[in-house]
Automatic annotation (TrEMBL):
This is Exosome complex component 10. GO terms for molecular function: 3'-5'-RNA exonuclease activity; metal ion binding; nucleotide binding; single-stranded RNA binding. Belongs to the exosome component 10/RRP6 family. Residues 699-716 have a biased composition (Polar residues). One of its GO terms (cellular component) is nucleoplasm. Residues 670-692, 736-765, 779-790 have a biased composition (Basic and acidic residues). Its cofactor is Mg(2+). InterPro entries: 3'-5'_exonuclease_dom, Exosome-assoc_fac_Rrp6_N, HRDC-like_sf, HRDC_dom, HRDC_dom_sf, RNaseH-like_sf, RNaseH_sf, Rrp6-like. It comes from Danionella cerebrum. Residues 1-21, 668-827 are annotated as: Disordered. The keyword Transmembrane helix does not apply.
Length: 854
């Protein structure tokens, strides 16, 4: 929680340091906070609440052991611990610290994690201090500090180098050609490098490119080019016996009583190497400059023994510094560094120097849990010396060096051997007289010696990393402008051997890309003060901005910069979903498309739409909707746009090699799972198709036993004819409007008694097949076919039967096959059609007839 609060504070203060145009309506410092004090109080209250909550947890001892005996408590603690470690790793990774919190051994995992947290807190607090200084106006530029009365060198030191600095966009290859103190000989690739330089066809080819050409010619293995020359020696190195005993600290000499020699000639460098070869240990430190160089320059090397201090002008002796490999790689001599993480890489990059048998006092401070691991803190604790850090960021290219800068450089190594003795003694005391902690520090220092330098490689997606860090939301024109400016700056920095901060600082580049000035004067107005190279090439920048303005303007791509942002996603995620393959996206568009056929079919098989070369407008809208919902956990996935150099991929000793192989296996497993899922989906589709066919056939078979209305009416007519012929004349119902009188009824009854019963041979019943039987259906909405079973049992028909019984109108209901519809549904045309055949049927020329009632 405290780390996250610090992260938020750093982001807000960084926003203050950059010029931001505020609108009139913005009065709050942050949404929900009126000013900085309110935000600070809220953050402090959150930290206090988290501290109280952690203090309320079961304490170590019997109480904690009791809770740990419950499996549910163990599982809860394990899950919460993983969550916290994951969050801490992301915060540390955001600030550029080591963040492998989980990949730790079980024996030393807790201690290593604590060390990582301490280092991350130091880095974060240091950034907070820098940002506070910038906010208060103390330091607003990246220019190095210059002593009073001194100016930067007029002639750049790079121009005096015998070998031109290689700023090409190719991987770094070591320049070593001789290997002192070798147990395993130097690979032939490095040993024969001086022969390759004599090839006339490669004189105009850059050195790194010539290495690649020669590698293709001779078919040498790529591991030789990018391997560590002393990897075998470091892997088989054994800790010296001198480190296994508790030392007696040798008091340092006062700085004023110690001689200091400034070495800037080859003879003095050789003499120094011979002196160092006779010593059991010496201290080393470097001073580096990176503002006026693309890759940076090591300007100074300080070496201190028990009796003397030496300052080497590495700018003058850059090509001869490899001589010191004889002592730097001697396993019997201990080289004492403090914070050698970057020093090891700088030695490889500039001088092809490698270190064997190193002791890092920074690692020792971490093991002793001193709270702060910086060198000035160690000097204050062990030597009671307050170091002056004014020249920490000074321009070390100045020649001759001022006296105060020389004194600062000497202090970094003059007291380091005494600190080395004191810290070894403290490590023995902390381990109860055993060399276990010293051995642990020595192993960590050996791992640092195995580090390799990697050049910054420019790719098409390199600008996205900086874009995400700036927490901006650009539209397509602004993003194109930012990409073009980033590429222009990188190319110019490599050609001129200048840092990107000197060419065009990040905040100025973001400002230009955001404003998109229409005129060159607008570009210079966005850069205050205007960098020299921007002023020289403002017309070229104007053309790049003009090219970006011609890009079609699309909707702004807004990112959520919170716990669930997409900070680790690639640039392609803005256009399509990177977590889904293109064919899967197209399948989802077909499944969830907005178009549907007008034809309605119940038992037809599902036919997939044919592949379209260009998606429809509806599919494009569906895709844009899908793109708006980003995966909230994408930031925790491995990034796809991070450049991994080829030498790291092919080096079995690197972690990237292991991760690369692991990703290959995971991708193969993922492809196998996707293939199985697709096969399963196909089988389910086939099964569903078979079930639909079966249902269709069963329904068609059930329709065979159902008669049509015409067939049912014909059959019912034959049944009524047989009933009349068997039973005789049945009582008639008065249907006609002209009823007969009583004497006529009596005469008809007498005639019926005298004459024999039975129908006449010329009697013809009414042919109902000629009638329009569709009118009997009324306005039914349920089905398209007449279903007598369902209609006979409906609630409305039962109610209608009861009404007919009460009114007496249902006398003929016993001989009917179908129930009548409601009278209000019969149109006048229907009533006329029913009445005509009925009257003609009830009044035949004979004395009796078969009667039908409706």
């Amino acid at each position: 929680m405290a780390a996250s609060t610090s992260r938020t504070a750093v982001e807000k203060l960084s926003d203050i340091s950059q010029p931001v145009e505020e609108t009139e309506g913005e009065t709050e410092f942050y949404p929900g906070f009126k000013d900085v004090d309110t935000f600070t109080k809220h953050g402090l209250g959150t930290v206090v609440a988290a501290t109280k909550a952690s203090a309320a947890l079961p304490s170590a001892g019997d109480e904690f052991d009791l809770y740990r005996s419950f499996p549910s408590f163990q599982r809860f603690c394990a899950s919460q611990a993983d969550t916290l470690l994951h969050c801490m790793s992301k915060i540390m990774q955001h600030h550029g610290c080591q963040s492998h919190m989980r990949d730790r051994s079980k024996l030393t995992g807790l201690e290593e994690r604590f060390d990582l947290v301490v280092d991350a807190n130091d880095a974060i607090l240091e950034k907070v201090g820098i940002l506070l200084d910038e906010a208060s106006g103390v330091s607003r530029s990246q220019q190095p500090v210059m002593p009073a009365g001194f100016q930067a060198p007029k002639i750049r030191p790079q121009l005096k180098f015998k070998e031109r600095v290689d700023n090409s966009n190719t991987p770094f290859v070591s320049k070593i050609f001789i290997k002192p103190n070798a147990v395993k000989p130097l690979p032939s690739y490095f040993a024969n490098k001086h022969i390759r330089k004599e090839r006339p066809e490669d004189l105009d080819v850059p050195a790194a490119l010539a290495d690649f050409i020669h590698q293709q010619r001779t078919q040498e293995h790529v591991d030789d080019m990018f391997s560590h020359p002393y990897k075998y020696e470091l892997d088989n190195l054994v800790m010296p016996e001198s480190l296994k005993c508790k030392p007696d600290a040798q008091t340092y000499k006062p700085l004023e009583q110690t001689s200091c020699q400034f070495i800037n000639t080859l003879e003095d460098l050789v003499a120094l190497n011979e002196k160092l070869a006779r010593l059991p240990e010496f201290a080393v430190d470097l001073e580096h400059h990176s503002y006026r160089s693309f890759l940076g320059i090591t300007c100074l090397m300080q070496i201190s023994t028990r009796e003397e201090d030496f300052i080497i002008d590495t700018l003058e002796l850059r090509s001869e510094m490899f001589i010191l490999n004889e002592t730097f790689t001697d396993p019997s001599i201990v080289k004492v560094f403090h914070g050698a993480d970057m020093d090891i890489e700088w030695l490889q990059k500039d001088f092809s120097l490698y270190v064997v048998n190193m002791f890092d006092t920074h690692q020792a401070a971490r093991c002793l849990n001193l709270g702060r691991n910086s060198l000035d803190h160690l000097l204050k604790v062990y030597c009671d010396v307050s170091s002056d850090k004014r020249y920490q960021l000074a321009d070390w290219r100045i020649r001759p060096l001022p006296e105060e800068m020389l004194k600062y450089a000497r202090a970094d190594t003059h007291y380091l051997l005494y600190v080395y003795d004191r810290m070894r003694a403290d490590l023995f005391d902390a381990a109860n007289g055993l060399p276990s902690l010293v051995q642990q520090v020595w192993f960590k220092s050996r791992d640092l010696s195995l580090r390799k330098y990697f050049k910054p490689i420019f790719t098409e997606d390199s600008y996205m990393e900086l874009y995400r860090k700036q927490k901006k939301s650009f539209n397509t024109q602004q993003l194109v402008a930012f990409r073009l400016l980033y590429a222009w700056r990188d190319k110019l920095a490599r050609d001129e051997d200048e840092s990107t901060g000197y060419i065009l600082p990040n905040h100025m580049m973001m400002k230009v890309a955001e404003v998109l000035p229409k005129e060159p004067q607008g570009i210079m107005a966005c850069c205050n003060p205007t960098p020299p190279l921007v002023r020289q090439q403002v017309n070229e920048l104007h053309q790049l901005i003009k090219q970006a303005r011609e890009t079609p303007l699309l909707k702004s791509q807004s990112l959520l910069f919170g716990p669930h942002d997409t900070s680790r996603s690639s640039e392609s995620d803005f256009l399509d979903l990177s977590s889904i393959e293109e064919d899967e996206v197209f399948e989802e568009e077909l499944l969830h498309g907005l178009t549907a056929p007008a034809k309605i079919s119940l038992f037809e098989e599902d036919s997939s739409c044919p592949a379209q070369a260009h998606p429809t407008v509806a599919q494009q809208k569906a895709r844009s909707i899908m793109e708006a919902f980003e995966n909230p956990f994408r930031m925790y996935l491995p990034s796809k746009d991070i450049h991994i150099s080829k030498n790291a991929k092919y080096d079995p000793s690197t972690k990237i090699y292991e991760i690369h192989n692991r990703w290959k296996l995971q991708s193969m497993e993922q492809q196998k799972k996707e293939a199985e899922a697709k096969q399963k989906a196909k089988e389910q589709a086939k099964k569903a198709t078979a079930e639909r066919k079966k249902a269709k056939l069963s329904y068609q078979e059930s329709l065979k036993n159902v008669h049509s209305v015409r067939q049912q009416v014909t059959q019912s007519g034959h049944k009524r004819e047989r009933a009349v012929s068997d039973d005789g004349v049945k009582p008639s119902t008065k249907i006609s409007k002209t009823e007969p009188t009583k004497p006529e009824q009596k005469k008809q009854k007498q005639k019926s008694l005298q004459e024999p019963e039975g129908p006449k041979p010329d009697f013809k019943p009414y042919d109902y097949s000629q009638s329009n039987m569709k009118i009997f259906a009324g306005k039914a909405k349920d089905a398209t076919h007449f279903d007598p079973n369902r209609q006979a049992h409906g609630p409305m028909q039962k109610k209608h039967q009861r009404a007919l019984k009460k009114s007496g109108g249902g006398a003929g209901g016993r001989s009917m096959s179908y129930l009548p519809s409601k009278s209000d549904r019969l149109s006048p045309q229907l009533a006329q059609e029913i009445e005509a055949p009925t009257l003609s049927f009830l009044n035949p020329p004979h004395t009796h007839s078969g009667l039908l009632f409706f």
